[in-house]
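Request from the bench team (R.T.):
"We need a structural guess for the complex before ordering more adenosine-5'-triphosphate. Sequence and SMILES attached. Just send the tokens back."

Command: build protein-adenosine-5'-triphosphate structure.
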Amino acid sequence: MTILCTPSQPGDDLVVALGTGVLTAATLPRVRELLEQLPAERLVVVGPEIAFEEAAGFATDLRLTRPLVGVVAIRPVLDVETYAYAMQAGIRELVATGDLPGLADACRRSRRLSESILLPAEAATASEAKVITVFSAKGGCGKTTLATNLAVTLHANGARRVCLVDLDLAFGDIAISLQLEPRRTLVDAVAMGENMDATGVAGLLTSFRPGLECVLAPVEPGDAEKLPAAVIDDLLGVLRGMFDYVVVDTPPQFNEHVLRALDGSDHHVLLTTPDLAAMKNLRLTLDMLDLLSYPKATRSIVLNREDDRVGITAGDVEQALRSQLAARIPNNLEVAASFNRGVPIAAEKPSHRVSVAIQKFGALRMDGPQVPQVQTPKAPPRRWRAVGSRSGRGA
Ligand SMILES: Nc1ncnc2c1ncn2[C@@H]1O[C@H](COP(=O)(O)OP(=O)(O)OP(=O)(O)O)[C@@H](O)[C@H]1O
Ligand SMILES: [Mg+2]
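Reply to R.T.: structure attached below.
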């Protein structure tokens, strides 16, 4: 069922776009009455004849009283100001007058969000999400690959609600790697200011699968600079109440946004590949995290692209980093092939050895008990003693 607010008689094509079971109300006060009679209703579409300020006020009220009800507004003109105003008010979707396929899509997205997102009002007994940030200071180690595949693994075909956040603000790859259209991105969160809540954040999400939602990175050049780092604290705080897991992908450098994400995380997944540059950068990262007093127990060190042929073994990596590996992910061409097809390997080929390694890691480190980090006592072999000593602490 959908409630359509319009003073005029809706055309058949509009009713078809809204799906089966449309109830029409001439005014927003009448919509309020209908909502009181229909506690399970999840969607209100506001026609272009209704003043936008009135629609915005209605959406703002609903985000408090009925946060699961999505508001989709049809407007004759869609510009940046209208989007910003709508976002602030908590209108989930804006659609141009006459764009019936766009309207059908917007309604579908809004319904799906209402169904798949656990909002605090309905989740009194649910626990908060675990927030996991995936980081490596060297580019190309596989952060995006691991973050997307970990999200798929934790989602477990819909058994859990997972949100994947692309914090690589300038060069985010989540949208392209999952072939998602970035209609809403992190930069839209700025318009919410201090009013960020589950309803507003629901409007930022792009769905990969029901229950596996993404907050995509900005696409326009310069958008990244518009995002104050404090937005990350608010966003992660709100997402905690909406999902079971939040997985954050990051750029390959420490910046204010990354530090906020690390602060707001329960778990840090730190990646290296079997090469000296990546290992040296991870060694420095570990020192930096120690300096910032992040507990070691919240860390998992993962070796990605493990390959017998490169001459650096998992044992070598453990010695150089003076830390135990929580997971070893094989180097395999299928990973890149899946990435290029827009379906993470864990979704496409769950029994592939790369998928199995990520599943085991997810099950052990994210679901199960924490494994204490064991310091490896032996000195590292001579060839990468430099990796440890560059940190200034010796190897
Ligand atoms: N285990 C693996 N086996 C083979 N190829 C892999 C593996 N993991 C990642 N790759 C490939 O390595 C490349 C870089 O991976 P990815 O984009 O995930 O790295 P990243 O750390 O996110 O990079 P950036 O720092 O640029 O964001 C991609 O082409 C990806 O398909
Ligand atoms: Mg990346």
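Two things stood out. The chain has a mean pLDDT of 86. Residues 143-144, 168, 173, 249 surround magnesium ion (ligand 2) (CB under 6 Å).
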